[in-house]
């Protein structure tokens, strides 16, 4: 599963891990990605989305129909 949100487009960030002696090594900051299943009433089926925690909150606010429209507008499959 790729670590990106279908709704917000959030992807991993990259930076440095800094040790106590201040040596730097590359690290990856992954978003909090969850797989969530929603009922899409307009199509009469369930859809399984890969969303970040912020994306789940957005779906709760705007509704799954509007979220599905945004995902399709970004060119992703629902």
TrEMBL record:
It comes from the Bacteria. GO terms for molecular function: structural constituent of ribosome. Keywords: Ribonucleoprotein, Ribosomal protein. Residues 1-25 are annotated as: Disordered. Coiled coil: none annotated. GO terms for biological process: translation. GO terms for cellular component: ribonucleoprotein complex; ribosome. It holds the Pfam family Ribosomal_L28. PANTHER family: 39S RIBOSOMAL PROTEIN L28, MITOCHONDRIAL (PTHR13528), LARGE RIBOSOMAL SUBUNIT PROTEIN BL28M (PTHR13528:SF2). Belongs to the bacterial ribosomal protein bL28 family. This is Large ribosomal subunit protein bL28. It comes from Kitasatospora atroaurantiaca.
